[in-house]
Amino acid sequence: MIPNVLTIAGSDSSGGAGLQADLKTFQEYGVYGFNAITSIVTMDPQTNWSHHVTPIEPTLVEQQLTTIFAGKNIKALKTGMLGDIETIDLAADYIEKYTVEHVVIDPVMACKGTTELLQPENVVRLKEKLIPLATVATPNLLEAKFLADMDDITTLPEMKEAAKKIIALGAENVVIKGGKNFDENEAIDLFYDGENFVELRSPKIETNHNHGAGCTFAAATTAGLAKGLTPLEAVTLAKDFVTSAIQNGVTINPFVGHIWHGAFFHAEDRVQVED
Questions:
Q1: CA atoms of 213 and 215, how far apart (whole Å)
Q2: pTM of the predicted model, to two decimals?
């Protein structure tokens, strides 16, 4: 009884983030991973490793989803970089059509290494169509700022305010990834279920090897939900999984510092499949 888990996300050709991070994480957790590719991200070493994002036509995204959902039931699903309104709508339509039990929305609004945000109308569509379907939404500080219609989030009280506003959009739970921004010694993320706040703390790691950490956190949360963990249990284990991956980061190329998804070897042993 291996749960089937889907990621609808962009492809990172460097192997550290996007659907590559998701599938590696799914494997570590002992779930069966599917993917629908929404875009392809490349880096150009001749121009200071500048990033290029090439979207996949929505018709081809839908063909992938049709293939995936023609098989066994998808227990849990996460979204990553979607990129355009049509693809956002497709993701929402398939979640609702197939009544996916666990949905993690990682509201990716920019590719790391670029300053280009999603078009404002795409952010609005994300808020309207996908956030209300989320079992867990996993924005970083920038994404939380736009979802909550706030200025820059620079304090824990502001994180709590943003979390309340994101829950008001319809998400069941939210975890805002604050990371190293609020404390000299700890990396702090904030979980909120509409009633209670839980601060997820870990020692701050001074490293540049954090490429893919956000995608991996969302993927680990998705896999944990698929294997029967509660949302709080899933994000707590995801935090440990990502911390270990950052601690054991690897150098793949001169520009990007990758995390190591295989660092937390016993994730599968720590979560049990539901009966």
A1: 6
A2: 0.92
